[in-house]
Design a protein that fits this description.
Elements lengths: L23 E6 L2 E5 L6 H14 L16 E6 L2 E5 L2 E5 L14 H13 L9 E7 L5 E4 L11 E7 L2 E5 L9 E5 L4 E4 L8 E3 L14 E7 L3
Antiparallel strand pairs: 1-2, 2-11, 3-6, 4-5, 6-13, 7-12, 8-11, 8-13, 9-10, 9-12
Length: 226
């Protein structure tokens, strides 16, 4: 049974151990890479921290400026959270659903994002926003650029958990050909510098059952937004 996207997720911390996977760095661009399995050692801290965030800021499916309901459910934590509605895309200091400040970014989130950025060659990354996406089978993300941030100097750090995904990593025009990059549970994509404004997206998630997270893919996207 699929999880209600408006409710927090409770994870089984006593599930089978994660499969051993030797982390490696795969380059997908001049200043972009996939850190294979990088998040796996952090999972026992990440998942309960995520549950705490979602208890305060539940997942919701937002409306785009064009009036479409996103297939991906979203939440945020940190000083700034990303939102969208008929008036446009923007960062806010308060969750429009609850009226409260977005939950504080858990220390383990911040530390993982900094560690991944350093591994990818971005030593001074200080994220102030984490967008949390929940994909169920069939959900997707169309090609887009991350350009709502005040500055593009900092990289984007994107963590994949749960069901596998095909990440589309394109060029600087929407019409440019995209690489199809398979992402597995624990993989992290980092892009910045000359690659910072590349178009990217996610193909529809295929049916599946992850042994620890079930019928879903969870994605953390860390940014320096303010």
């Amino acid at each position: 049974m699929r999880h209600d996207p408006m409710s927090p997720i409770t994870f089984d911390l006593f599930a089978d151990a994660e499969p051993e996977q030797q982390p490696r760095l795969d380059r997908i661009g001049e200043q972009s890479c996939v850190l294979k399995g990088f998040a796996l050692p952090w999972l026992d801290q990440l998942l309960p921290a995520l549950d705490t965030v979602l208890a305060a800021a539940p997942f919701r499916q937002m409306i785009t400026p064009g009036g479409f309901t996103m297939s991906v459910a979203l939440s945020s934590c940190g000083a700034l959270g990303w939102t969208t509605d008929r008036s446009g895309y923007r960062y806010t200091r308060h969750d429009p659903l609850t009226g409260q400040p977005w939950p504080k970014m858990p220390d383990v989130f911040f530390e993982l994002a900094q560690a991944a950025a350093r591994e990818a060659g971005f030593a001074d990354f200080v994220p102030d926003s984490c967008l949390i996406n929940r994909y169920v089978p069939g959900a997707k993300m169309s090609l887009h650029q991350d350009k709502d941030e005040v500055s593009y100097a900092a990289p984007i750090v994107s963590v994949s958990l749960g069901l596998p995904a095909i990440f589309l990593f394109g060029g600087f025009e929407r019409s440019d050909k995209s690489q199809r990059v398979p992402l597995l549970h624990g993989d992290i994509v980092v892009w910045g510098g000359v690659d910072r404004l590349r178009y990217h997206g996610v193909l529809p998630i295929k049916d599946g059952q992850h042994p620890r997270l079930g019928e879903q893919r969870i994605n953390f996207t860390f940014r320096t937004a303010g």
